[in-house]
Design a protein that fits this description.
2Fe-2S; transcription regulation; Multidrug-efflux Transporter Regulator, Chain: A, Domain 2; about 45% helix; about 5% strand; binds FE2/S2 (inorganic) cluster; 5 helices; DNA binding; mainly alpha; elongated; metal-binding; Redox-sensitive transcriptional activator SoxR; 3 strands; 3-stranded antiparallel beta sheet
Length: about 150
Protein backbone atom coordinates (compact mmCIF):
# COMPACT_ATOMS: atom_id res chain seq x y z
CA UNK A 1 0.00 0.00 0.00
CA UNK A 2 1.35 3.42 -0.91
CA UNK A 3 2.53 5.72 1.88
CA UNK A 4 0.91 9.13 2.19
CA UNK A 5 3.47 11.85 3.05
CA UNK A 6 2.97 13.29 6.57
CA UNK A 7 2.50 16.82 5.21
CA UNK A 8 -0.69 15.76 3.45
CA UNK A 9 -3.58 16.29 5.87
CA UNK A 10 -6.47 15.61 3.55
CA UNK A 11 -6.88 12.69 1.21
CA UNK A 12 -8.77 12.25 -2.01
CA UNK A 13 -11.02 9.23 -2.25
CA UNK A 14 -8.42 7.58 -4.52
CA UNK A 15 -5.65 8.11 -1.95
CA UNK A 16 -7.85 6.84 0.85
CA UNK A 17 -8.74 3.79 -1.22
CA UNK A 18 -5.14 3.05 -2.18
CA UNK A 19 -3.84 3.43 1.37
CA UNK A 20 -6.66 1.64 3.19
CA UNK A 21 -7.17 -1.14 0.66
CA UNK A 22 -10.91 -0.43 0.56
CA UNK A 23 -12.54 0.01 -2.84
CA UNK A 24 -13.76 3.50 -3.72
CA UNK A 25 -17.29 2.11 -3.87
CA UNK A 26 -16.89 0.73 -0.35
CA UNK A 27 -15.72 4.13 0.89
CA UNK A 28 -18.75 5.81 -0.68
CA UNK A 29 -20.91 3.16 0.95
CA UNK A 30 -19.30 3.74 4.36
CA UNK A 31 -19.92 7.44 3.94
CA UNK A 32 -23.56 6.90 2.99
CA UNK A 33 -23.94 4.87 6.19
CA UNK A 34 -22.36 7.56 8.33
CA UNK A 35 -19.21 5.57 9.18
CA UNK A 36 -16.86 8.14 7.66
CA UNK A 37 -17.35 11.71 6.50
CA UNK A 38 -15.72 14.12 4.11
CA UNK A 39 -15.86 17.75 3.13
CA UNK A 40 -16.45 18.90 -0.42
CA UNK A 41 -14.06 21.12 -2.33
CA UNK A 42 -15.23 24.01 -4.49
CA UNK A 43 -15.16 21.52 -7.36
CA UNK A 44 -17.44 19.16 -5.36
CA UNK A 45 -14.72 16.60 -4.75
CA UNK A 46 -14.52 14.69 -1.50
CA UNK A 47 -11.66 15.30 0.90
CA UNK A 48 -11.07 13.10 3.93
CA UNK A 49 -9.05 14.03 6.99
CA UNK A 50 -6.05 11.81 7.55
CA UNK A 51 -7.58 10.09 10.59
CA UNK A 52 -10.25 8.64 8.28
CA UNK A 53 -7.64 5.98 7.48
CA UNK A 54 -7.92 4.73 11.05
CA UNK A 55 -11.72 4.80 10.95
CA UNK A 56 -11.68 2.74 7.75
CA UNK A 57 -9.22 0.28 9.31
CA UNK A 58 -11.53 0.03 12.34
CA UNK A 59 -14.61 -0.61 10.17
CA UNK A 60 -12.85 -3.21 8.02
CA UNK A 61 -11.40 -5.07 11.01
CA UNK A 62 -14.81 -5.19 12.66
CA UNK A 63 -16.43 -6.36 9.42
CA UNK A 64 -13.87 -9.13 9.08
CA UNK A 65 -15.00 -10.64 12.35
CA UNK A 66 -18.61 -10.42 11.23
CA UNK A 67 -19.79 -7.34 13.14
CA UNK A 68 -22.75 -5.78 11.31
CA UNK A 69 -22.31 -2.24 9.97
CA UNK A 70 -25.17 -0.99 12.15
CA UNK A 71 -23.31 -2.20 15.26
CA UNK A 72 -20.07 -0.62 14.04
CA UNK A 73 -21.87 2.66 13.42
CA UNK A 74 -23.36 2.59 16.93
CA UNK A 75 -19.91 1.98 18.41
CA UNK A 76 -18.39 4.87 16.47
CA UNK A 77 -21.29 7.16 17.34
CA UNK A 78 -20.74 6.50 21.06
CA UNK A 79 -17.22 7.87 20.93
CA UNK A 80 -17.04 11.45 22.27
CA UNK A 81 -17.61 13.92 19.43
CA UNK A 82 -17.44 10.93 17.10
CA UNK A 83 -13.68 11.02 17.33
CA UNK A 84 -11.49 8.45 15.64
CA UNK A 85 -11.20 5.22 17.67
CA UNK A 86 -8.02 4.89 19.69
CA UNK A 87 -6.14 1.71 20.60
CA UNK A 88 -8.09 1.63 23.87
CA UNK A 89 -11.43 1.99 22.05
CA UNK A 90 -10.62 -0.93 19.80
CA UNK A 91 -9.48 -3.06 22.76
CA UNK A 92 -12.70 -2.34 24.68
CA UNK A 93 -15.06 -2.81 21.73
CA UNK A 94 -13.37 -5.92 20.39
CA UNK A 95 -13.57 -7.47 23.87
CA UNK A 96 -17.32 -6.82 23.97
CA UNK A 97 -17.76 -8.19 20.47
CA UNK A 98 -15.85 -11.36 21.31
CA UNK A 99 -18.73 -12.66 23.42
CA UNK A 100 -21.14 -12.12 20.54
CA UNK A 101 -18.70 -13.74 18.14
CA UNK A 102 -18.21 -16.77 20.44
CA UNK A 103 -21.99 -17.27 20.52
CA UNK A 104 -22.21 -17.15 16.75
CA UNK A 105 -19.34 -19.62 16.37
CA UNK A 106 -21.01 -21.99 18.82
CA UNK A 107 -24.27 -21.75 16.88
CA UNK A 108 -22.52 -22.36 13.53
CA UNK A 109 -20.63 -25.34 14.98
CA UNK A 110 -23.94 -26.84 16.13
CA UNK A 111 -25.45 -26.34 12.67
CA UNK A 112 -22.36 -27.84 11.00
CA UNK A 113 -22.52 -30.89 13.28
CA UNK A 114 -26.16 -31.45 12.37
CA UNK A 115 -25.62 -30.86 8.67
CA UNK A 116 -24.29 -34.42 8.37
CA UNK A 117 -27.81 -35.74 9.00
CA UNK A 118 -29.22 -33.48 6.29
CA UNK A 119 -26.75 -34.23 3.51
CA UNK A 120 -28.64 -36.14 0.86
CA UNK A 121 -31.89 -35.96 2.85
CA UNK A 122 -33.87 -32.90 1.73
CA UNK A 123 -36.89 -33.42 4.01
CA UNK A 124 -36.49 -30.02 5.79
CA UNK A 125 -38.96 -31.35 8.34
CA UNK A 126 -39.99 -28.93 11.07
CA UNK A 127 -40.18 -31.87 13.46
CA UNK A 128 -36.89 -33.62 12.88
CA UNK A 129 -34.57 -31.41 10.81
CA UNK A 130 -32.30 -29.28 12.96
CA UNK A 131 -31.43 -26.99 10.05
CA UNK A 132 -35.04 -26.36 9.20
CA UNK A 133 -35.99 -25.59 12.80
CA UNK A 134 -32.70 -25.13 14.67
CA UNK A 135 -34.13 -24.07 18.00
CA UNK A 136 -37.40 -25.97 17.73
CA UNK A 137 -38.91 -22.55 18.18
CA UNK A 138 -42.52 -23.65 17.98
CA UNK A 139 -42.41 -27.33 18.84
CA UNK A 140 -42.40 -26.84 22.60
CA UNK A 141 -45.38 -24.54 22.71
CA UNK A 142 -47.81 -26.31 20.44
CA UNK A 143 -47.94 -29.03 17.81
CA UNK A 144 -49.56 -28.72 14.41
CA UNK A 145 -49.63 -26.28 11.52
CA UNK A 146 -50.66 -23.16 13.38
CA UNK A 147 -48.32 -20.95 11.31
CA UNK A 148 -50.05 -21.85 8.08
CA UNK A 149 -53.03 -19.77 6.94
CA UNK A 150 -56.11 -21.24 8.64
CA UNK A 151 -53.93 -23.08 11.17
CA UNK A 152 -54.81 -23.18 14.87
S1 LIG B 1 -32.98 -32.10 5.55
FE1 LIG B 1 -33.75 -33.92 6.40
S2 LIG B 1 -33.04 -33.90 8.44
FE2 LIG B 1 -32.42 -31.99 7.62
Amino acid sequence: MPQIPEEIHELTVGQLSARSGAAVSALHFYESKGLISSRRTAGNQRRYTRDTLRRVAFVRAAQRVGIPLATIREALAELPEERTPTHEDWARLSEAWRTELDERIKHLNRLRDHLTDCIGCGCLSLESCVLSNPDDAFGQAQAGSRLLPGGR
